[in-house]
Specification:
This protein is of the alpha/beta class. Helices cover 40% and strands 13% of the residues. The protein has 17 helices and 14 strands.
Length: 497
């Protein structure tokens, strides 16, 4: 048994496992399980590398506060490292990332600042940078800090070469977020295992590297704005709305042989298949990486050996779409098993089979809930929405740009679902609004409609006039509301403008 002197010594040396059931015949498919790191993700390596490099250079002083923008895993790794080394930590994270991440960070003693989701990754970084500048804190800069790539060259890459030998792999498949794993491992494979193809997996609706479009930078060399190929996707920790410096370095250095686009649904399905057929538990990004590796494996020659990186554990995704179809209640088969065994503890009669549930119908309580919310918030616009919907975020961005106070009732959040009968409320909303879709927007009790109706009203000036009439603050500045729509539904004439 290896005895570690502290938790940080347990980082790295993660296991490689050969898949027995998912790989095509004649191809050996392996996964490197980074969830075996102490805090359950590959970012434990990056966190340790950045902090120790900053200590060595003197950039990080004893007791100084550490701050970073992160989707969660880097923050959790930093929380472990900072707790072990005695540094206070502040994490900036978009509020649409999973609740498990927030709770883990706070449990480890970090402070969590939640940035608005519409600001995306570039917004998180801007907030973290300002906090560092204003307070004299150490900013980790995970997206361009060479220490993040260096530790992967010293650890992850060395482990892979040790396990497979020089040119022992046909292909190595990874996603990217900061680009640290890609650059750090990629350059060692190029030097010591040049026959190994390096495959980068991306969300198919946010194929930033695969698009071939360069990241626009400002005068300081930072991303000037969101990459034009970016769209929201469910792979948390994968592909922010810009191409990081470390990833750009990997592209410029010729470390990428091919890119593979993976859909959100394919990533989730693959993560579930990996759990149910191989007993390996990973998150959505791990499912996406494996999906890309399987696609490569299906076209590979017999005898090929392929390694996919699994960045983290599935427990970090309990409140995300990965678990949307996983019930906490017993299904029919489980209930049948229970009743078959009940005589062991009590002679309970088996209940009659339940009929299929009828579609939810609005009742007076649900109708009252909707009317009370829409009529009892003076000075604000009220919007019934879904937290992951692009159209809901389009309305949010428009109202924010106009300086309009907003109350958003996000009916798909775990908190709202736990406290309310969502099917009945949605049925009541559809009945009262005359439309079952979301968002549905109200001002002073007046129904403004859905996303496109609000956009049209703002374009004509009718929205601004009505808000002023209702006593709701609203900017008089001229603004094109259609700029906030997803590009694929924006009117063609507005795209040109």
């Amino acid at each position: 048994m290896t005895v570690h002197q502290n938790i940080l010594d347990a980082i790295g040396n993660t296991p490689v496992v050969r898949l027995q059931h998912l790989a095509p015949d004649g191809v050996e498919l392996f996964v490197k399980i980074e969830a075996a790191n102490p805090m359950g993700s590959v970012k434990d390596r990056l966190a340790l590398g950045i902090i120790e490099a900053a200590e060595k250079s003197g950039e990080l002083k004893p007791g100084q506060t550490v701050v970073e923008a992160t989707s969660g895993n880097t923050g959790i790794g930093l929380a472990m490292v900072c707790a072990a080394k005695g540094y206070p930590l502040v994490v900036v994270m978009a509020e649409n990332f999973s609740l498990e991440r927030r709770k883990m960070l706070r449990f480890l003693g970090a402070k969590v600042v939640l940035s608005p989701p519409w600001a995306k990754g570039t917004g998180m970084i801007a907030i973290a940078r300002k906090l560092a500048e204003d307070n004299g804190w150490f900013l980790c800069r995970q997206f361009d800090n060479e220490a993040g790539a260096d530790i992967h060259s010293r650890t992850t890459a060395v482990e892979i070469i040790r396990d497979f030998g020089a040119n022992g792999l046909t292909a190595w498949v990874t996603g990217f977020g900061t680009g640290g794993t890609l650059k750090g491992v990629g350059r060692v494979l190029r030097e010591q295992s040049p026959a190994t193809r390096i495959i980068v997996a991306e969300p198919e609706n946010a194929a930033l590297v695969g698009s071939g479009i360069a990241q626009e930078l400002d005068l300081d060399g930072e991303p000037a704005r969101s990459h034009p190929a970016f769209h929201p996707h469910p792979m948390q920790g994968w592909v922010p709305d810009f191409i990081s410096k470390l990833t750009r370095d990997a592209v410029d250095d010729g470390l990428i042989d091919a890119t593979v686009g993976v859909s959100g649904g394919e990533a989730i399905d693959c993560a579930i298949e990996l759990a149910r057929r191989e007993g390996i538990f990973c998150g959505i990004s791990g499912g996406a990486t494996l999906a890309a590796a399987l696609r490569i494996a299906r076209d590979a020659a017999p005898g090929s050996r392929i390694l996919a990186m699994l960045p983290d554990t599935g427990e970090r995704y309990l409140s995300t779409p990965l678990f949307a179809d996983i019930s906490v209640d017993m299904g029919e088969e489980e209930q049948a098993l229970l009743w078959s065994a009940m005589p062991a503890i009590a002679p309970v009669p088996k209940p009659a089979a339940a009929s299929a549930p009828a579609p939810a119908r609005a009742d007076d309580t649900a109708r009252q809930f909707v009317t009370d919310i829409t009529a009892s918030n003076p000075g604000k616009v009220v919007m019934f929405a879904m937290s992951w919907c692009e159209f809901c975020w389009s309305v949010r961005k428009l109202l924010t740009a106009l300086g309009v106070p907003l109350m958003s009732i996000d009916v798909d959040t775990p908190e709202f679902r736990a406290a309310n009968d969502v099917p009945k409320i949605r049925a009541a909303l559809a009945e009262l609004a005359g439309n079952p879709t979301l968002p549905q927007v109200y001002a002073g009790g007046t129904h403004l409609g859905g996303c496109m109706e609000v956009m049209a009203a703002a374009d004509s000036g009718e929205l601004q006039r009505l808000l002023v009439e209702k006593g709701i603050p609203c900017s008089e500045a001229a603004i094109d509301p259609y700029q906030f729509l997803p590009s694929w539904v924006r009117p063609p004439e507005r795209i040109a403008a």
